[in-house]
Model the fold of this input.
Amino acid sequence: MKPPAEHREPDDAALRRAAQAVIAYPNDGLPTFDATWYARARSEMSPTHQIRVAPREAATFEVPAGHFFRIISTEGAQVGDLNLWHRHNLNERFYSGKTRALHGTHLSTGDRLWSTFPYLRPMATITRDTLDWYGWDDDGASVHDVIGTRCDPYTGALLSNEHYHHCCHSNLTRALAKQSGQPLAAAEQEVHDVLNVFMCTGFTRDTHQYFMKASPVRPGDYLEFFAEIDLLGALSACPGGDCSASHSSDAAACYPLTVEIYKPDPKTLTDWKPAQLNRYVGGHGVPPAV
Ligand SMILES: [Zn+2]
Done:
């Protein structure tokens, strides 16, 4: 909690507070989400493989550009923490903060998952969300946020001096190290802020603190993505389970998650190309050396 303000309001405080709110990144210049096109591609797709993510563990998966993938709840209410990288360049990874700036605090159908600088292009598009009915509840919460980061052992040590090894950060680190053959410390540097799949979160109205509540996800629900570039993904089945009470411990009931990858019929993709790199000319204003 912040201490009470030390400074008296200026006489024109009301006027200053009444300044008009302006959307910082108007996103109507982005390519529009063509639901009909994605529906056509989906109608001819067939599953290629399936990955099971064990409770309190993470697993990696690859999705070729132009394929769909779904994160599926199978046995019980469970939150998943998702990382994405370019399959051939781990420096290009999901940029949670810029995705939030472009699409808002929670994602659903039509939103894109953007990559880090200097690439800044859509890595994946969310094409179907069986929890899209949830909207915003009376607490101001919604599902699939990009406001939390991922549960991690450092914050646990900081706040309660506990040393828990199955937080999503550690799960993602172990899974990537196993997939890439990197030492644990190197893999840890590649792990980044996540999309909190199925998690129900918001900011409290009084203190604006990050809160979580029981996920509305039920077995059979899924979040579907279309890979706009070749992807390497990692998904952790969060130790918080449905995140109704706690995380960063073995206290919550946890369930597995499934990732399923689907290949559309190529004839539905004839007018589609992988996402192009960002158009910024580069240089940051410094003339190139001659
Ligand atoms: Zn977690």
Summary: The first strand starts at residue 46 and ends at 53. The mean pLDDT is 96. Helices lie at 13-17, 35-43, 96-103, 153-160, 168-180, 184-190. The first helix runs from residue 13 to 17.
